[in-house]
Design goal:
Layout lengths: L1 H16 L1 H9 L9 E2 L2 E2 L3 E5 L6 H7 L6 H8 L2 E4 L7 H13 L4 E4 L4 H13 L3 E5 L9 E4 L3 H15 L4 E7 L5 H14 L5 E8 L4 H14 L3 E6 L2 H11 L9 E4 L3 H9 L5 E4 L2 H16 L10 E3 L5 E3 L5 E3 L4 E4 L9
Parallel strand pairs: 3-4, 3-5, 5-6, 6-7, 7-15, 8-9, 8-10, 10-11
Antiparallel strand pairs: 1-2, 12-16, 13-14
Bound molecules: alpha-L-rhamnopyranose.
């Protein structure tokens, strides 16, 4: 934020003093001079939404105009929103998308980080050009302006442990089927899961495996767990791709009702498994609201209506008022728990 503000001030001063320098500033990505405003927010901004991967229905819901996600908020605000990424949830897929956004003159980038270490050099170069960088879903804490978090990371970790504990009556071996080993969000949740597991001395976390948000890999690693741990009682999968793959593996008479499953899932993908008893309960937030809020936060920031200082407030359209909290983070809200009793009333 400091770097970005300095650059803006430089451009403003230069604009008054030297016309030639103004031209140079205007051709860079994020000068406010050329953008008309509506209700104090700049319009006509080029915003690139970069999920971990394309083809993951969680991100399709978070991002698309149809579901009311990020692009719908950008449309409402009069910006040009584009979703772009690779098909694998890897930095090798995301880096060309970030570079492409920079080359096309992005004013803001909204990104879910597959691997902050690998992405930060490219994200830092975007920020140096004055591009607003907002992470959503999975953070890259050292190379973004703001992070829009779906819920408190501790609340997400805690609820997953509490759900599996209820399923297995507080006792037995469990394993985790995660996404990528480098994913900030899953790793943070797992850290909180371990903390919460300390309250359940009879539950033994025997293994953490990584399905990389890829259905085939998640299926394989789930099958591997079942082979290696014949006494396994439960699986937590804190990824929508992983939990759906694990549910499909467990959805046979051999495992249904014997190995419990919980984690974070898309209600639409999990309905059949909840209704047939493969999974008693799992959690998630509304991904479309997450994308929508990230879009508002990015435009508020790019328009210099908010900074990343704690206490700043803004209204995110239909979602209402939000406040920037500690660590430049805005929280969407509390996660929802889905069970047979409520799942059929959710459509995402
Ligand atoms: C997957 C992704 C995403 C995560 C959800 C729960 O779709 O890993 O980052 O937030 O699951």
């Amino acid at each position: 934020m400091a770097r970005r503000t300095k650059k803006s001030l430089f451009c403003m001063t230069a604009a008054v003093a030297v016309t030639a320098v103004l031209a140079a500033c205007s051709s860079s990505s994020s000068t406010s001079a050329s953008h008309p405003t509506k209700n104090g927010l700049e319009t006509g901004l080029k915003v690139y939404v970069i999920p971990k991967n394309l083809g993951n229905s969680y991100f399709t819901v978070a991002d698309s105009a149809k579901s009311g996600g990020a692009i719908s908020a950008l449309d409402t605000l009069g910006e040009t929103g584009t979703e772009t990424s690779g098909t694998a949830a890897t930095p090798a897929s995301q880096i060309p998308a970030i570079q492409g956004a920079i080359a096309k003159g992005a004013n803001a980038i909204i990104l879910s980080a597959t691997d902050p270490t690998a992405l930060c050099p490219t994200l830092n170069s975007a920020m140096k050009k004055g591009i607003t960088v907002v992470t959503y879903d999975s953070d890259a804490p050292t190379c973004r302006d703001l992070f829009v978090n779906q819920a408190s990371s501790q609340a997400i970790g805690d609820i997953e442990v509490q759900l599996i504990a209820a399923d297995i009556h507080d006792s037995g071996q469990i394993a985790i089927v995660s996404a990528a080993a480098s994913a900030t969000n899953q790793n943070t949740w797992i850290m909180y899961m371990k903390q919460e597991l300390a309250n359940y001395p009879k539950i033994d976390l025997v293994s953490i495996v990584y399905g990389n948000d890829d259905t085939a890999t998640s299926t394989q690693v789930t099958q591997g767990l079942l082979e290696h741990y014949p006494n396994l009682k439960g699986i937590i999968s804190p990824t929508t791709v992983g939990i759906a793959a694990a549910a499909a593996v467990l959805d046979t008479s051999k495992y249904r009702g014997k190995i419990a499953l919980t984690g974070l899932g898309d209600p639409d993908q999990m309905k059949q498994f909840v209704n047939d008893g493969t999974c008693a309960s799992f959690a998630l937030w509304n991904p479309a609201n997450l994308g929508y809020l990230a879009a508002y936060a990015a435009i508020e920031y790019a328009s210099k209506k908010i900074t990343n200082a704690a206490g700043q407030t803004f209204v995110a359209g239909k979602l209402g008022k939000y406040t920037v909290g500690a660590d430049d983070t805005i929280l969407l809200g509390a996660p929802t728990v889905f069970t047979k009793a409520n799942i059929n009333s959710f459509n995402f």
